[in-house]
Structure formats: C-alpha cells, structure tokens
Structures
1.
Amino acid sequence: VSSASRVGRRLRLGRTFVLPFAAMASASRRAARYFAFGGVGLTTAGLGQAAHLRMSYVCPEEPMGKLHGHAGPDLKGPPLRLLFVGDSVCIGVGAKIAGPLQSACAERLAKLRKRPVEWSTVGASGADVRELHELFMARQKSDAASGKCGGFDLAVVFCGVNDSKKLLQGRSPSVFREDLDALCASLRKAAPEGHITVPSIAGYKYAPLLQLWPMRHFVDPFLEAFEAQKEVVAKSKLIYCISPPPDSLPSSDDTRLWSSDGIHPSLEGYNIIGDWLGTALALAHA
C-alpha cells in the first residue's frame, strides 16, 4: 500500500471519529442552552407566582381567647415561667382558639418535668423581629410599673418569615441576624438565669400553599437563608436553636393539619408542634 493511500485512510478514519464527537459536542451545547432557557423560564414563573401570592394573600382572622395560661395545676413545686415571643404562630392564626401551640407545649412540659407551668405571650400577627423587640420592651416597662419582675425561666422566640417579606426594604438575612441578636440580648438582660430557645422550624417545607410548583423550588432556599441566621445567633449568645424532625411537623398531605389559607397550621397542627416543643424543652433543660 502506498504512502499516499495510508495517509488518506488515516484522514478518513480521523474524520470518522472526529465528526461524531463534533456532533455530540454541538448537541451538548444546544442542550445546555435549552436547559438555561428553561431554568430562566422556571425562575421567572416561580418568582411571578410568589409575587402574586404575596399580593393576593389574605391572612385568616385572629382567633379569640387568652394568650396566657397554666398547665399542671395539680403538680407540686414552684411553677416554671414560660414566655413565648412571636408572630402569628404564637397568636394561633389558623386555629379556632388563641395560643394552641403554647398550651400544648406547656402541658407536655409540665407532664415531663412534673412541675406546674405558667405561660404567657408577647407577640402580634405579622410582626417582624424589630416589632417583637419593641413589644417585649413595652411589656418590661409595664411590668416594672406594676411591680412585677418581668423575668422568665424559659423563653421561646418564633420569628423570621415576616422579616423575609421585607427584603426589598433592606431587611436582608444579615440584618435579620442583627435584629434577632438585639432581641435575645434584651431577653438575657431581663432574665440572666433564664434559658432562651429560638426554634428553627421549616414549616414552609410542608405548608401546602408554599409547595406549589415551581415556586417551591425558590421558597425553600430563600427562607433557609433567614433560618440559618438563628444558628449563628444561638452560637454567639449561648442560646438554644432546635429543629424538629419531619415527623414532628404537620404533614402537607393531611389537610386536617392546615388551616384554609394553606400556610398556617390548624388547631391539630399546632398541637403536634407544641407537643414536640414541650418535649424538646424538657429534655434540653432537665
């Protein structure tokens, strides 16, 4: 075989291998473009969906009832003073009675600690951390004027979602961390020996309305950025940041555990969270 024939065969063989690889590379580039365009489309759709929800959402009316109470009245010993500071979750929005989470938590805590529990609440539906801080300081001032000590043995802070709604007003996760840090500092000053807990409860992962596709793919990482700040504050302030296992939260598949708005728990849902929280507090502060 001549040298020219051998060279020609190598060139033909080269083209035989090069052309499929070139075609594969071209197809990969096209696929990448399609995925990119698809990702942009999903992002736009998800953000639009979230914006529509933000503008059209109507919060259920606040339930009637007291936001303080007692648990374990037949138990002996000085009562544990349990303070809740929080937003609509502490008000009980979505339930038919006020404060169902606190009541369930106090009952479980009293049973496990074998001590009576006196619980009270400082909060407001829709309140962010700054507003909760103002409410707590107002209560401290009122307690001082009436001769009350204003302290607590255990304090639980529920917050974060309402702060995330104000991102466009400059309330970034880092600002949320600073505001939460300031609230915890005031709580610590009011009760130097008290225990402070800031639960990180990813209820947004289970709330039916927030699981709509494709919005759910953006809600989770967005809110997790705020939830992560609770861990940072907990480490710096030596407070507790606890998270429930999934089976301790209302299941998104059980509509009985959620209110009609698809975001807040129902009475049964609050009871599930309260039972978990009471158990966690009893174990953490035994």
2.
Amino acid sequence: HIAERPHGSAADRARKQLKSNVVLGGGKVVNPVKGHKHEYTIIYLHGCGCHAAQYLEDGWNLPWTGQDRLPGLRAVLPEGPSIMQKWGENETSWHTYATRRENRVGEFESLNATRERLARIVYSEVSRLSGHGDRVFLGGASQGCTVALDTYLRQVGRLLLGGFVGSVGFMPGDHQGFRGSTQALERLIDDESLRERPVWLQCATDDERLVPWRKAVKPSLIRPSGRLPGLYIKEVSGRGHILGEWEGEFMHEFLKQHARFDE
C-alpha cells in the first residue's frame, strides 16, 4: 500500500490542488455526493476531438451524474492536450496519429507524455484512497479507451488497480505504436493474482470507419483471447461508433459487479 501523507498546511493543500489542476489539463473532477464517503475512483478519458466537460451531461446515464449516480464514486476526467495532427488539424488528442485513416500512434513522444501524465494521476488517486489500488478503475471511450487501457496494463502490477471499463477502443499493442504494451499485456496474463481482475470492452461491430471492428479491434483481441480470464467483450451494433447512453449503462453494469459500495 502507498502510505497516506499528512494533510499539511492550507498553503500546502493549495499548491497540491494547483498541481492537480495542471496534471488534469483543465479536466473535471466529480467528487462523491456530499455526506457520503469516498469509496471508489474511476479515471475516465474522452475520445479524440472531445472534451472532459461532455462527461458532465446527465443524458448519458453516467455513474457520476443524474438520478442513478453512485454517491461514493469520485470521477476524474482529464482533458487531452490540443495537438496539431499531421494533416493540419488541431484537436484534443492523447497522441498524434500516423495518418488520418488509421489508429496507429504517430510521434511516440506524444504518447509518452500522456503516459507520464496519466501515471501521476493514477498514483494520486491510489494515494487518495490510502493505497487501495483495487478501488481505482480506469476507462475511456474511443481513443481514450485505448490510451487508458495502455495505462492500465502498465500500472496494474505496480499499483494493484481494480480493473478497466471502456467502449469503442481496442487492445493496445506495439504494432499500433504503443511501445511496451504487448509486453505489459503478457505480464498481466502471467500474473495469477491480477489476471482475473476485470477488463471490460464494449465493441461496436458495425463501426467501419473510426475504430473499425474488423481491421483494428478484432485483430487486437487475438493475443488476450482465452488467456486473460478477466477479459469480457460485449459486442453491440446499431449505432456505429457513437454509443450514447450505452456507454454509461456499460459502466453501471461494470461497477455493479466489481465495486462494493458500503452505502
């Protein structure tokens, strides 16, 4: 477990809050409902061209908003940096792309900067829960799903994280520019104490353009298939890449099974 640090002075707390805001990059945090203790955290990443603030809207049936909100859940929603892509468009993105028509990472430095930033966020949230990494989940949508899963694979063995839930992404691998993620996946598969932890992916089988099921997602699942007991794939169709409230409902289903709230 990670040792809990003393709270310190008001000035210390203010400096930590400022540092946290910088790491989140203008992202959003939804704390537990007032009067309820902090029991779990989910760190959730938006997709390319999207924003953290979009995950504050009630209509998506998210676990941290609306009537079905889980009162003991803290949601950490980082904002991706604004990046100039090779084709001349500036957009929020967790890394550059090799080309406009594929999901392969472009400049590795852009991904590595995101990895370092997310590692600090994850460490901070585990510390906030007094070292209970099993109470911290990662997730995301589209590009955010794949990048968050990359971080989960790299950090689960170090921080004993609780699991992963994401939609319309793919399993990251070295061949897609996620250097070291293939080895990280193999380490997880070989770890008898961690490989049972849930890795849930909701995949749109009728997505033929943004994160294509046949060309990108399905091939990425060959390596862990039958070897990672915690892996659960939910195949959906009818909406293409944009799942709407299905995304939130999938998270609710995940948390219902893998989080044990006291209240």
3.
Amino acid sequence: EKILTWMDDLRNSGNTDIKPDTISFNACIDAWARSGYKKAAERAEQILRHMDQLYAAGNEAIKADSYSYNTVLNAWAKSGLNGAPQRAERILSIMQAKYRNGDISLKPNTRTYTTVVDTWAKSNERNAARKAEEILVAMQSEYERTNDDDAKPNTATANAVMNSCAFTKVDSDKHDALTIAFRVFDWLSSQVDIAPDAYTYTIMLSVCSNLLPRQDTSTRYSHARKLFLKCRESGYVNDFVLRKLRHTVTEEEYMSLVDYRVNSSARNLPASWTRNISKNKSRNRSKGSKWNRR
C-alpha cells in the first residue's frame, strides 16, 4: 500500500510516467485479503471504494473490475467478523446493480456467488445454512432461465453450502442445517456435468459427525456408511475422508468399512477407491488459475 501511495503522490506532483492503475490497486487489495490482519477486509473495501471514487472523478485508468470486487469478497469471507455476510451481500448487490446498468466488467460470476456463500459458511450467524442455500437456488434458477455459464453453480458452490451446514454454530439451526446438507448433496449427485468430489464427502461426514447426536450411533453409521460407499465407488477416498469417517463412527464400524485394513491410509487402499484423487487435484489447480485471471 505504501508503494501505491508513493505512485499516487508522484502522479499528483505531475509525474505522468508513473501512475497507479487498476492492476496496481488490485494487487494492493489482494495483499490485504491475504494478510490475515484482523481489519484486512475493512481496509480492502476502503481501497475498493477509493477506486470507485477516483474513476467517478474521471480517472479512467483506475476502474474496479470483477477481480477487484471478488477479492474484497474473499477478504470478508476470510475475516470471520460479525456482520461479514451482510457486508458481502451488500458488495454483491452493488455489482449486480452496476452490471444491470451496463457495466459488463462487473458481472457477478460463479466465484462471486460462491465466495458470498463461503462468507455465510464461515460466520456464526443464525440461519447461515439457509442463507447459503438460497444463493445456490437463486444461481441455479438464473442459469436455467438464461443458460449463462458464467454464474452457473458448480461443485465448489455446493460444497460451500454443505460446509455452512456442517459447522452451524446455532443449536436451533442444526436440524434445518442437517436437512439442507443432504438436500444439496442429493442435488449435486443428480447433476449431469458436476458431481461430488473428495471434499464433498469430507464435508458430509462432518455434517454427520457434528449434527447427529453422538449417542445415536445407528443413524450416524447408516449415513456415514452410505456416504463412504459412494465415495469408494466414485474413487474419491483420501486421508481426509478416512480421518473424518473414523471420527464419525465407532472403531469397529470404521474397520468394517475399510475391509479391516489395519493400515488404512489412502495409499494402501485399492486403486479403485482413490483413482480420481489426482485428477481432482489437477482440476482444482486449473480452476484456481482461471479464477486468478479474473
């Protein structure tokens, strides 16, 4: 940020060779988003507002784009602060309004909506799971209406909703969160072009572990068994799935599900159980690169 201020001071003093632009401002916002500083999200949003003010004043070299807004949303998702979901929703509404008014560079995309879902998932807010699912439903409805792939929900979106369920903090919301988690899992499983991945199964086992009573061993085992068998069939068993499975069921139940393998790390399991793990990592790296370009 000091470098950005220095560049701005040079421009104001008449040096036109060095001046900040959208890229330099975005780099500053991104640095704040990654900083881990308690007030990083607030500062990132302040810089975004400053960009909007500069552009409105006639500085066309500094125009916030979808990357600017998405990065601020990411800062709020990481913040864990009270009110973070509401701040994210407000930023999303600004993007939507500007896009409707003709600014195509601020078109909300899949990353935008998924990050807002993630903000709800990482909050301690009441009805977080329900709010997260509402965003997913709205995305899917809009996709069905427009057939626009740019904001189509994907596996990461569904995972974020299920994650909001798994870590629901409010006791009175937990029954609703359990229902939502399995509803979203069933929706994801029914899709033609997207499907559950290893993270999906890890999250859903967390749902069983966190939301089903510890003493209700039969229900926990029944759900965990169905999930793990589907995970095996789809080739997404990894060490995270195994660790969460072990935490959800009894030791005897766990051993039966891994066919009584004493050393049941992923590398010692049948290849068919783990066949898609490396492929999924490659896809995630590819998605990350694509997102980073936006």
4.
Amino acid sequence: LQRLSLAGNSIGLDDASILADGFLSHCHCLVELNLSYAKLDGASLHKLVDCIGSLAHLEVLNLRNNAIGPEGAGLLSRQALPSLKRLRVLDLRMCKLGKDGATELAHTDAMLDSLEELELGDTQALRAFVAGLAGHSEADERRLIGPWLMRFKRAALDGTSDAGNSEIQPVAIGLRRVLGLEVLSLRNCNLSDMDVEALASSLYKLTRLKELDLTGCSMSAAAVQGLASALGALLDLEVLSLAGSKFGTEGAAALAQMAMPRLAQLREFRLLGC
C-alpha cells in the first residue's frame, strides 16, 4: 500500500489506537497519508505520532483541519518529522497551531532537508515559523538550507494592528534562510530603525527577490538610508513599494544614490505618502 486516505473520517482516541497498532504499523511502503478533516486532536495524534514517524517512505502528510494545536505540533516536531527523511509536502492548514506550534515546527531541523511545501494557512503562524528559523545558529545555516527553503517563493508576513515590533526582528532575521524567495510582503509592520537594519541584512541574501512590499511600514529617514544599499543589491527586483513612510528628502537621496542606479529591472515603484 502506497497511498492511504482517511479524509473526512472521525478518528477518536480508540480509533487512533486501532489505526496505529493494527494498520499503519504494517504500512511500511506508504508514500502518501491523508488524515485531513478527521477530527483529530492532540490526544488522538499522540496515539498516532510514533507510528507516523516510522513511515520511512512517506512523502506527503496531510493533516489539514484537525485541531491538533501547539501540543500536536510539538509531538510532530519531536517524535515524527525528524524520522521522515523523504517528506516533501506537509499540510497543517486550519490545525490551530498558533505561534507556539509554528515555532515548534521551525525547530525541526531534519524536516528542512527534504520538505518542498509547507502549508500553514495562517499569516501569524507563518511569521512565527520564519521567526523560529532565526533561532538556529549561524553554524547550522548551510545544513538548514533544504530544498523547500529554495522553492518557497512567496511570503505574506503583513502586520496587524496588534503586532508589536518585538515580533519583527526575528522574522526579518529568519528570512535570510529562505533563499528562494521571490515575493515578500511586510505591509503595515511599523518597522523601527532596528527592525529595518535586521531586514536589510537579510535582503542581501534574498537575491532572487522580484517584489518587495513595505507599504505602511512607517520607516524613518535614517532607516531608509540604511536600507537603500540592500535594495540596490536586489538586481532582479521588479516591484517595490515604500508607500506610507515619511522619509523625506534624506531617504529619497539615499535611494537615488545607492539603489535606483542598480535596479535595472524595476518597473513599478510606489512612493505615495513619502
């Protein structure tokens, strides 16, 4: 058996025990496992997690719309994902992971070696995941650049009215791990000078970036002066928005001197309200 779908079935504690001990433990060649919409919670997943971790050939794991929460994310991170060396696709949309659960996943080093698609379906969870990447040491950076980090093309990490600056710096630092990024949005993140400094250091590594949206980030003139050089390193950049940051003539002069002469591919530049 290579593909198994139990999508839509209600799997309680007893069902999970039977599924793990009486069935999945014998499916050594399983490549795809779909347990989406199965009403799994953290306790039910606890019964299944070791068995899932034993599926050495598993490439696709779909747990969409199961309320496993941070507890379930921790179980997967510690007891299953490190053993799934061939896992390419992990779908955890609508799983109520929250920030804590997403951070747990970011600390699963081995998962990053093979994963191509990670679906979290939640901007805040994705921000927490990217921020969690920043917790890895620089010595581990080469090992952490798995295929999914190169194929992860788009990141919408927009801010909200209740998002404090304390969240932004680790997100900005974590972005330097996502080397294949082509589209990045950080709209309404209210970036301080220190946030922009952290973002600039990551932009130097995001050489494939084509679109960068910093609309409504309230960047100061000093911040934009520091950012300009990093923007100039984005030679493939086609769309740039700095709208809503009142950086004035000082910021504009830095952009004109250090960024614009190098952005030969730029076709859209938004500066409304600057």
